[in-house]
Structures are given as structure tokens and as C-alpha cells.
Amino acid sequence: MRQPSLRKHIAAATFLVLLAACNATAQSLWDLAKQNRDALRISTLMTAQDVRDRLSSDKGIDEAIDWCKKTGVTHVFIESFRDGYTADKQALLHAKARFAEAGFEVSGCITPTKVGKDSTGWTHIACFTDVPTQKRTQEIFEYTAAIFDEIMIDDFWFTDCECDQCQKARGDRSWVDYRCDLMTRLSRERILGPARAVNPKVKVIIKYPQWYDSFHARGYEVVQETADFDRIWVGTETRDPDNSRWGKKPQYEAYYIMRWLGGIGGAKCGGGWFDPFGTHEDTYVEQARQTVMAEAREMFLFCYGALLNDTGPANVEKLRTEIPSLFQLAKLVRGQPLKGIAAPKPPNSDGLNEQYVYDFVGMLGLPLIPTAEVRTDVKAAFLPVHATKDPQLGDKLKTMLAARTPVLVTDGLAKRLPAPLASDESLLVLKVNGKPSSLLDLTREQLKPIRDKLLAPLDIRFDAPSRVALYLFGDHCLAIENFNNETIHVSLGIPIAQFTKLKQSLVLPVNGSVAAFVHEFGQFELTMTPRTLVVFEY
Ligand SMILES: [Zn+2]
After folding, report:
1. 32-35 LR contacts (CB < 8 Å, sep 24+)
2. Alpha carbon of 137 to ligand 1 centroid (Å)
3. Ligand 1: distance of its center to the CA of 159 in Å?
4. I need a labelling partner for 513 at 20 to 30 A (CA). Which of 190, 364, 373, 420 fits?
5. For residues 480 and 522, what is the distance between their CA atoms, to the nearest angstrom?
6. From ligand 1's centre to the CA of 121, what distance in Å?
7. With contact defined as beta carbons under 8 Å apart, do 296 and 262 qualify?
8. Cα(118) to centroid(ligand 1), Å
9. Nearest to 248 by CA among 211, 302, 285
10. Ligand 1 mean position, distance from CA 369 (Å)
11. 146 C-alpha vs ligand 1 centroid, how far in Å?
């Protein structure tokens, strides 16, 4: 049954959205960013080296202010320490005053690399068991707290050192226990206490890296540290998914971690942070879109100096075209309860050979609800081996299956379940084979029965190839993102009662397009251009 009037309605909506985006671009991004600061702030970092090389003259500061304004940046972090280098106090104070005069919010930042004694592991990382290194850390925070009321810690506040001193200090504890205890204690004794003694107003932000499945192994204890610090920040730097240097991260990882830590941090969660390394224009802006869709209140562009080089300028140019729509996107998702398939990762849980499997499952058109807790009052669930961290897992799973809740488990978890549970008919097994990235090769035909079963309780039908993500925001808004380099055809079914209300609210990139045709009542066929995000309200 065709409904040409609805098709026309959708086409008209697209046209209006495009028109709105053009108007917004004509208005300066600086003015637009100031107006939208409550919905989404954009920030950047001037590293300690940028302070030395680019902000030590008024001409350099003028150029930085101009770049920020053209990029919609209204909040700058000015860094005092990185890689063993301490920025000059007068230069920091002068830059801080100039940015503040120009209408920016200004905060500080510290990157605890090359602080003192080197770790036996990653270069630039310190051995924080070493007391002189601890004292040096404290001095850096005291120095910075005297200048700034807010200090971000870049994501090197961990250790992987296994030197004799560390071996001796841990005794017969595991590395996980030793490092989590050490970093939690040093956060209190060497950072928070001393910084607050110097400046009682100071707020300290711990920025977590994007490698969430290894946090505890290197001493990031997300529950305790989130409780102790004033604010948290989230690494959403996924980069090009086929770039082996940076770990082959799927784009959905930025969304998963931002939502997961957003849930753990609540009001303390400030925003998401991504960079241009190992990206090109398409993947750079995908980081921004994932960060904003995951309800970050701020997106942080690391960093001014890096964005002036290599792929940075082209990335920023493309990002600027998307910023007006990103403000709109932030407003659409803000405060909407997430709908979908509960995908719990208990804090400090081990992924074993299924590390980051959530990120790949999210690329399969399964709308996940990233969460820290395995709950039974959910519409559908996805559980990998991480869930075994929950001592009540067996009982919880039994409760869900008794309620006929569809549950997708990985083959790794299925192997660990008692036989009666593993053979329950509400249980679906996803064959990961210890290689989460292989999930991206699942065909549309293989994915269909999994989606049909898990989405049924949500009253949504979805059929698409792999590398297409679906997001459900509340009961009246959804997004679809095509991460493929090809045009795709997608089938979408929404509740019948809302069928005639469907309207296209937003499409990115600005030259992307999504055509919707009514296939039958309640079901649409969409044609989406490559690397395109569409948001519908209904
Ligand atoms: Zn050591």
C-alpha cells in the first residue's frame, strides 16, 4: 500500500531541515555556540607545548581565539604540564585572562606523562609507587590549582609498571587490586587533598581513556574514582576502524563508553573527548556524532595544536558544517530515556577474549542500553562474559528467562552457564568465537532472526546490513547511522499508532540524503547515502 502524501511530507521535512542548516551556517558559529551552550558546549585544549609555542605572544593568542570562534568553541582548557614540561606561570595567567576577556570559559589541564620515574611498561607512563614521583605529581597539581578553578587530568593517570619496587609493594595482591588501590589513594592524597588546600574552589576532572575493558588492569577504578573526583570525562576517540595502529575500534565504541560512563557518573559526567589521530573527515565527525548522541553535555576537541596539522584542518572544516545539526541533535536526545536492549558491563569486569564486544554488537542494528548493572526488569538483554562479574548472574538470568525476556548471550558466556539455562528457548547465542570484530561480517540474513527476536518487545522492526546502528531515544525519536561506504536500503517498522507522524528531523552529513517510502502500513523502506546519520521523530 503506497501513501504518496506521506512520502511528500517526508521530502518536505528534509527540505526544511536543509534550509535550517544553511541559515545556521550563515550565522557565525561563535554566536550559535553561545546560544546553544546549555544544550552542547564545544571545548578544546591548549597543551603545555601549545602554551609555549602558540600562546606566548598576543598575536598567537589572537589566532587561537579566532580559530576557536570559527569552530564554535566556547570553553578552552589551558594546560600547565605535559611530557615533563611545565608551562610558564605568566604565560598561563596571560592566556587565561585573554580568553576570559574574549568571552570564553577557561579551565586548566594536566597530563601526567614523564612525571618522574618511568614505568617498565608504556613509554611516558610513570611508576607511581615511587615516592619522589608521587611528590612531583602533588607539586604539579598545587601549581595548577593556584591558577585554575577547574583542572582536567588527561587519561594517563594510571600505571602499568612492574619494577622491583612495584612488585615488592603489591606483595601477594593481584596487579588489578594493587593498582586500583594505589591510584585511588594517590588521587586523594596527592591530587584532591593538596589541590583543594591550595584552592578550595577547585574542581578536578578525571578523564577516563576510551579503553574501558582494561581500566582496572591499569588502576582506573571507575566507581571509587568517580565518587572521589568532582567530575568525570570520557574518551570517545575511536578513529578509523581499519587503522591498525589505533586498535581497530568500531565507531559505536564512542557511543557505548559515553553512555556507560554517563550512567556511572550521572550529573558528574561532563563530556566526551576525541582527537584527529588516525582519522579522516568521515571518521572524525562520526566521533562527534556518537559523542553527542550519547548525551555528552560537552564535546572536547583534542587539541588546538594537533588540529592545525596533518588531517586536522580538513577534519575541522567538515566538523564546522555539522555543528549546527549537532546542537539540534543534542536537544533531541537530551533527557530522553534510552530504549532498547540492556547491555550491562559491570565495573572492573574482564572481557577475556570478548573484549569490547558491545561495540561490535552495536554496529549490527541492535539498539543497546549501555549500563553498569545486570538488571532483570528489561525488555531485552545482551550478555557477554563480562556479566559473570555479577555474583547473582544465574538467578537474574533465570528470572529474565522465566519472564520470556529475549536474551542474547555470547558463545563465551553460554559455555559458562548451567545446562538448563543454556538450553532455554528464550536464549539466543551469538557466535563470537573469541573474535568480536568477526561479528561485522554477519550477513543481513544471519542478523534478521536475532533482531526480530530482540526488538519484538520494543515494537520496532529493523532490517539492514551490518555496520548500521539503530538508536532509540524515548518513545518518539530514533536514529539510524550507516557506517558503510555504500548506499544502503533499510527496512524500518514503528508502532502503528505513530506511523503517520514520522518526520525526518535531521540528516548528516549536510549533503547526505535519506529517502523514505512506505512499504506497507507501519513499515518504511529507506535508502541512505554512505556514512550518513538520520534522526526521525514520530
Ligand atoms: Zn614501578
Report:
1. 32/72, 32/323, 32/324, 32/327, 33/72, 33/73, 33/74, 33/323, 33/327, 34/74, 34/103
2. 15
3. 8
4. 364
5. 17
6. 9
7. yes
8. 8
9. 211
10. 38
11. 30
Give the C-alpha separation, 346 to 367, whole Å: 19
Please list the pLDDT of the chain residue by residue as tens digits (538 residues): 344 444 444 444 444 444 444 444 457 999 999 999 999 999 999 999 999 999 999 999 999 999 999 999 999 999 999 999 999 999 999 999 999 999 999 999 999 999 999 999 999 999 999 999 999 999 999 999 999 999 999 999 999 999 999 999 999 999 999 999 999 999 999 999 999 999 999 999 999 999 999 999 999 999 999 999 999 999 999 988 888 787 789 999 999 999 999 999 999 999 999 999 999 999 999 999 999 999 999 999 999 999 999 999 999 999 999 999 999 999 999 999 999 999 999 999 999 999 999 999 999 999 999 999 999 999 999 999 999 999 999 999 999 999 999 999 999 999 999 988 988 988 999 999 999 999 999 999 999 999 999 999 999 999 999 999 999 999 999 999 999 999 999 999 999 888 889 999 999 999 999 999 998 888 999 999 999 999 999 9
SS3 label, residue 516 = strand
Helix or strand run (H / E) with residue 491:
strand 488-493
- Locate 230 and state its grid cell: 568532582
Cell numbers for 262: 554517563
| Cα three-residue angle 40-46-50, rounded to 5 degrees | 160
Cα separation, 202 vs 100, in Å, equals: 17
